[in-house]
Each structure stands twice: as C-alpha cells, then as structure tokens.
TrEMBL record:
Disordered: annotated segments: 1-47
Boundaries of every D-isomer specific 2-hydroxyacid dehydrogenase NAD-binding domain copy: 175-367
Protein name per Swiss-Prot or TrEMBL: D-mandelate dehydrogenase
UniProt biased composition (Low complexity): 8-41
Ranges of residues in domain D-isomer specific 2-hydroxyacid dehydrogenase catalytic: 122-399
Protein family according to the UniProt entry: Belongs to the D-isomer specific 2-hydroxyacid dehydrogenase family.
Gene3D superfamilies: NAD(P)-binding Rossmann-like Domain
Keyword annotations of the record: Oxidoreductase
Length: 405
C-alpha cells in the first residue's frame, strides 16, 4: 500500500444498506453529550473518578469550522494535542511508551491533511495504546491506513467520516463520468495546445468518439453511500441505466429508486455489461483481504468491452496503473478518469503521457476536497467521540464486527 499518510480526502466508503439521501447528508442534529446513551450500546459509559473528565488525544490541526461543537466537546473532555514534532513516528512511539499523555480515552483526527505524521496505525502503534482508549474518530472516508480489525479486538471503535464526504465525491465522480463519454480530457488539452491544428483536429474528430449518457449502462463497483449518490445523480439526471456489483444485494428500497438497479453476481459480469464503470469500493484495511492484488488489474480490464470507460474515485491501491495504461493504449478502454493513484503524490508516468494526449483525465485526489466536507469531518468526528464516551452508539463505526469488549 503506497498511499501517503497525509493525503487529500479519501474517497471510499463502507457499504450502506439504506438509500442514499437525495439531498446533502449534512451531519444530523444529534443530541448533546453526555445525554447520548442509548439502550443496547456495545460500549459502557467511560468510568472515571468523581469530578474527572475523559481525555482525548487530538492529533493534527486545531478545529477550524465548528466552534460551537468544539466548545461543547472541550467542556466535557480534556483535550491534549501533541506537537507536530511529537506526531512524527519515532517520537510518537516514544511518547506512547512513556505514557506522556496519560491514560486517554479517545483519539481525534479532525483533518486529513495533518495528524497522520506517525504513519500506518499497525500493531506497533496500536499495541502501545493505553487500555482506556474506547474510540478513534478520524476525518476521511477511507480507513486502510489503520488496522481496524486490531483496534476492534482491543475494544476500540474506529469511526470514519465518509458520510461527510459522500456528496462532494459523488459530484466529482459524475464530472469524471461525463468526461469519459464526452472526451473532455482531449477537448481541454487540445484547446490549451500551442498548435492551432490540435484545436481543429479535436473539433473535427472528437465527435466520432463522444456519446450521450442517456441509455448507457453505468456499472458501480461498491453501492455504498457514495456509490448510491453517484448512481442517483446519473440515473435521475442523465437517464443512465444502473448496474452494480457489491458483496451483498442491496434492499429494494435502494434498488428501486435507481430505476431497479441490477446487481451482478460477479465483477466479471458487471464489467462486461457496462458502458462505463465507476469504482466506489473501500480499500481493504490491514489484516483483511486475500492478498490477491488490485481489484482492477490486467485480468479485470480484459473483461471490459472494447472501448469501455473507467473512473476511479476510490483508492489508488485498488487499481493497477500499468494495466490501465496498457488498456488505454490498446483501445480496450476508450477513456478513463482517475482521481486517485497507486503511489501518491507520484502519478504513473505512462498515465501522465496519456493525459497529455487526452486519453485520460487525471486529478490530484481532489474528489472529496471541499470546505463543506472538512466542516463535516470535524463535526462528525467530535460527535462520534462524544457519543461513545457517553455509552451511546457510534454514528459511523466501521469495525463493530471485530469489537471485543
């Protein structure tokens, strides 16, 4: 896994069994801490000495967008924020070993651009956490940088913020889907060329490769929060026919509003049927998966129809960049759009060259990157921690199946 520690917003999300909301899934107005306990919660309220407050380890930048929630958060919890130097892995490990921050109860990472200087949350870090830790709430939808299975086995709930990123990622994905049908990478590059002949050639020839979206089959890999919103926009806004592949069939309440979305039993079946495929599945966290390699590699690309289209707003680690370049050069793919890359911030050199030729749109892991998303990251992370420490249910947990009390 070559994803950087401090990347822009990850774009994968856990699968959802509820329909994607038609409007922005703004963070709900949850009840105020500490009255958030609910029957059946898997975590008991944090037990403290009389007058004591739970301690939260805040890694990364200060809160910027939600002062009112932070005032509530800091009124109920003691917030400890390590310096940037202390967040570097060697010093962070040293601090955990010497219990520098005491027995804290939660880890809070409100931004994706900072707070990840210590790198992968593997056994080297997780095993050093004090036994008091109950919840780790982070910005970002992806969570393949943390061993959520090991955290769960330690009794620590990991909460992501995919709900806050879903709208932004879906909007961006739709723009990329349109790009693959209308050859926007070619059109943009030709218009920027110093040679007027490139403009004329694109004006003349792009028409033969461009298609309307209406009636085309959109294949969605991973019909979770983001996948559902992408599908909804493309079906209702552009008249696309929705097919999907997911580990389980989604309920009728999800499929029917998407025009009766059709589930495929295999990835091969979906790829063969789709005019354009958009990858919205979460990457496999450490400790899970079969180690069989990228989901979209040479074999899977061979299942695409000749001239297929491919969009990735999920994780670079799920795709073999070299194989995508081969498919674009051979014509197996007519166009592609990639927001995420295997070795960020480095983009595969062949893909960069193909982008200059207008064969692929490449962006800089920007899909979820809006101010609105970051507001939601902060709010949702704080609300998750307040809920769990009060003995209530986490709002967006991803590892409950591994939890051991």
């Amino acid at each position: 896994m070559a994803e950087p520690t401090n990347t822009p917003v990850p774009a994968s999300t856990p699968r959802s069994t509820s329909p994607a909301p038609r409007q922005t899934p703004i963070i709900p107005n949850f009840p105020n801490f500490p009255s958030m306990s609910s029957p059946g919660s898997p975590v008991l309220p944090t037990k403290l000495a009389p007058g004591a407050r739970p301690k939260v380890l805040h890694i990364g930048d200060p809160v910027k967008y939600n002062p009112d929630t932070y005032a509530l958060f800091s009124a109920q919890c003691d917030i400890v924020r390590p310096s940037a130097e202390e967040r570097e892995r060697p010093e962070f490990i040293r601090a955990l070993k010497e219990n520098r921050w005491g027995d804290f109860h939660a880890i809070f990472r409100p931004f994706w651009g900072t707070g990840g200087e210590m790198g992968l949350w593997d056994s080297e870090l997780v095993d050093l956490l004090p036994p008091t830790v109950r919840v780790f709430a982070s910005a970002g939808a992806g969570f393949d940088w943390a061993d959520t299975k090991l955290l769960g086995e330690r009794g620590i709930i990991y909460c992501n913020s995919g709900l806050a990123a879903a709208e932004a990622v879906a909007d961006f994905a739709v723009a990329m889907i349109i790009s693959t049908f209308r050859q926007l990478a070619w059109c943009i590059n030709a218009a920027q060329s110093d040679d007027p002949a490139d403009f004329s050639a694109c004006h003349r020839d792009a028409t033969a490769h461009a298609r309307n979206l209406r009636g085309s089959v959109l294949g969605v890999i991973g019909l979770g929060n983001i996948g559902q919103q992408v599908a909804s926009r493309c079906h209702h806004g552009f008249g696309m026919v929705i097919h999907y592949y997911d580990v389980v069939r989604l309920p009728a309440a999800v499929e029917e509003p998407l025009g009766g979305a059709r589930r495929h039993d295999s990835l091969q079946s979906l790829l063969a049927a789709a005019d354009c495929v958009v990858l919205c599945a979460p990457a496999t966290p450490p400790g899970e998966g079969d180690g069989s390699g990228p989901l979209i590699g040479a074999k899977a690309l061979g299942w695409f129809p000749e001239g297929g289209r491919f969009v990735n707003v999920a994780r670079g680690s799920l795709v073999d960049d070299e194989a995508v370049a081969d498919a674009l050069e051979s014509g197996r793919l007519s166009s592609a759009a990639l927001d995420v890359h295997t070795d960020e911030p480095n983009v595969h050199p062949r893909l960069r060259e193909l982008a200059r030729k207008g064969k692929v749109m490449i962006t800089c892991h920007n899909a979820g990157g809006t101010v609105d998303t970051h507001k939601g990251f902060e709010e949702l992370s704080m609300r998750n921690i307040m809920a769990v420490l009060a003995g209530g249910k986490a709002i967006t947990p991803v590892n409950m199946r591994f939890l051991k009390s």
